[in-house]
From TrEMBL:
<dbReference type="Pfam" id="PF02342">
    <property type="entry name" value="TerD"/>
</dbReference>
<dbReference type="Pfam" id="PF10138">
    <property type="entry name" value="vWA-TerF-like"/>
</dbReference>
<dbReference type="InterPro" id="IPR019303">
    <property type="entry name" value="vWA_TerF_C"/>
</dbReference>
<dbReference type="InterPro" id="IPR003325">
    <property type="entry name" value="TerD"/>
</dbReference>
<feature type="domain" description="VWFA">
    <location>
        <begin position="231"/>
        <end position="409"/>
    </location>
</feature>
<dbReference type="InterPro" id="IPR036465">
    <property type="entry name" value="vWFA_dom_sf"/>
</dbReference>
<dbReference type="InterPro" id="IPR002035">
    <property type="entry name" value="VWF_A"/>
</dbReference>
<protein>
    <submittedName>
        <fullName>VWA domain-containing protein</fullName>
    </submittedName>
</protein>
<dbReference type="InterPro" id="IPR051324">
    <property type="entry name" value="Stress/Tellurium_Resist"/>
</dbReference>
Length: 427
């Protein structure tokens, strides 16, 4: 019996022991940002047979379930390979890669790939620093009747999108697709296509929202939280003092970052949206398919204006989720943006207290340095059945990175879910 521990250098390969299952781990000790680890299942030409054979955080297995993304953390990712199913899959090898959301691999310490095949362990540590933002670690490939692993250690310039495209994954660019569709000349009629029993899958959409979803997931994992299923709503202050934040794109940016939470939590990825000032607007719900320029398309700049009047919009939010669309098994997470001037202490307190017996959690976010009134005293609010609200203020939402924003947004909501279930608010 050969030594069950094998260490590879770049370019080396070794046979893997016969095993029903392989475990592949990609990890590092430290990095300037989270690792986005992927597996590209490719044929002899180095291309995926279809986008279904791109296994990553937004598609956790191939059609045969031969490669499954089992665990994903900020600096560590684990895949399971069913060797019998892999031998039947229409691919010749599995290529394991990682990209960085910020920084380069020259800033990464102790970058490793570990393959466990029964009692055999194969390790590969990349010791040579690379300035690229993407890295191909190893490949597991079919060789006659065996499976082998080869150490690659090759850098790749660009992020996940160009890396995926290099393996033949069709990555949708929503903005480019929209422009192309608008400018394309009418095509001449073509013969009706012959129906296919195996229609081509839709392109994998690696839009900005998909990449933000990854950061939401990292926040949950860092807090050691189970995946959350919830309805998600956002309420935007549209008073006169917010005008410049709408005009300079800050509100659209905040909207996109919240949409990523809805895309992660909600079964259909839908975000419900309200705007308010003296009056309010219940806007059309939105998903990651139609997020671009949503604020400009939906809200007429300056149409609300005036001063803040929170109670009417809060009443409409409560009405939607407890009267029009009640669902006691599904928590509702409401993110409420205000730039201050909160004055109706008594009415706001009554509404928060009234909704403390409902499946609603209010996350208030202050924008800038202003008078947030009762929102700054939520922890002291008496009479509630359960603590159902949280508040924090940001001097400038554009200056806070995604990881910190999601850490703060998800600070109390998961604990509220647990307590709401214990007290019978959630079925």
């Amino acid at each position: 019996m050969s030594n069950p521990i094998v260490s590879l250098n770049t370019g080396q390969n070794t046979s893997l022991h016969e095993s029903a299952q392989l475990q592949v781990t990609i990890q590092c000790a430290s990095a300037p940002s989270a690792l986005d680890v992927s597996c590209f299942m490719v044929n002899e030409s180095g291309k995926v047979p279809s986008d279904d054979y791109f296994v990553f955080y937004n598609q956790t297995a191939d059609p045969q379930q031969s490669v499954t993304l089992q665990q994903m953390e900020k600096l560590k990712c684990t895949f399971l390979i069913d060797t019998h199913k892999l031998r039947q899959a229409p691919v010749s090898k599995c290529v394991f890669t990682a990209t960085l959301e910020g920084g380069t691999f020259a800033q990464v310490e102790k970058c490793q790939a570990i393959v466990q095949a029964g009692s055999q362990q194969v390790t590969y540590e990349i010791t040579q620093a690379t300035q690229e933002t993407a890295l191909i670690f190893i490949e597991i490939y079919k060789h006659r009747d065996d499976l082998k692993v080869r150490a690659i250690g090759r850098g790749f310039f660009g992020g996940l999108k160009p890396l995926a495209e290099s393996f033949g994954v069709e990555v949708e660019d929503p903005a480019a697709a929209e422009v192309a569709a608008a400018s394309a000349a009418p095509a001449p009629p073509s013969p009706a296509p012959v129906p296919s029993t195996n229609p081509a899958p839709a392109p994998v959409n690696l839009s900005k929202i998909d990449l933000l979803k990854r950061k939401v997931t990292i926040t949950l994992e860092k807090k050691k939280l189970e995946p959350i299923k919830a309805r998600v709503a956002v309420v935007f202050d549209a008073s006169g003092s917010m005008y410049h934040l709408y005009r300079n794109g800050t509100v659209q940016e905040a909207f996109e970052r919240i949409l990523a939470i809805a895309a992660t939590f909600d079964d259909n990825g839908e975000l419900d949206v309200w705007f308010f000032a003296e009056d309010y607007l219940r806007a059309p719900s939105v998903t990651a398919r139609d997020f671009e320029n949503y604020i400009a398309r939906t809200y007429t700049l300056g149409s609300k204006g005036g001063t803040n009047n929170e109670p009417p919009v809060m009443e409409d939010v409560i009405r939607k989720y407890t009267v029009e669309e009640p669902n006691v098994s599904m928590p509702t997470y409401i993110i409420f943006f205000s730039d201050g001037g909160v004055s109706q202490k008594r009415k706001i307190s009554q509404l928060i207290t009234k909704s403390s017996t409902k499946n609603l959690f209010w996350q208030f976010v202050g924008l800038g340095q202003a008078n947030y009134g009762v929102l700054q005293k939520l922890d002291e609010m008496p009479g509630r059945y359960i603590d159902n609200a949280n508040f924090f203020a940001l001097d400038d939402i554009s200056s806070i990175n995604d990881e910190e924003l999601y850490d703060r947004l998800l600070n109390e909501f998961p604990a509220w879910i647990k307590e709401a279930r214990a007290k019978g608010i959630l079925a």
